[in-house]
Please model this.
Amino acid sequence: MSLRKWSKLFLKTLLVGAVAALIVGLILQLFNGGIEFTGWADVLIYPLILLGSGALVSVYSQMGFFAYLTLNYMGIGIFRRKTWQYIQIVLAVLALLELMFFRTFVGGSTSLQQDLILGIAILIIAVMVAYLKVKSTNANAWIPTLFFMMAISIVEIIGVLQIGVSNATIFMVVPLLICNAYQILTLHKVTQDEKKS
Model:
């Protein structure tokens, strides 16, 4: 991937994250009323804060994406392709189980229901994104996409889960998953264009 292609992907993902955070933030404000505005300045500045926060989330997502690409490259180089696929399946399942159960039973967290809902939502989104990726590329993309959307996304959101605030979790997780889905679904287009040129 050339620097030009990477910068294009970076800027587009930045925009996706900013817009996703703006929409999620406005919906949360509309339905939960988390912030009380004291004047018009607050009303005008709030969308800018949401856009900036979304841009930061997208950068965080992109760090995870390039860490995944490096990990995948190393995994393919060290293990046979079939073995690396089994390892990815095991790691994805372990990450999902850790998200859904480990924090409650070992960490003493009392949010089992929220963790189950979040885990199931991530699983559903991962399956949908993997289906779209396979449809636009080939069947070999199924397991790496599931691994990225489940294991890497869960590693990325661990920090926000420790805050324990539902709105903060929703505000970070939704744009992060959208950015991750966007990157993994457009990667083959970026690399194909590079191969053609």
Remarks:
- The chain has a mean pLDDT of 86.
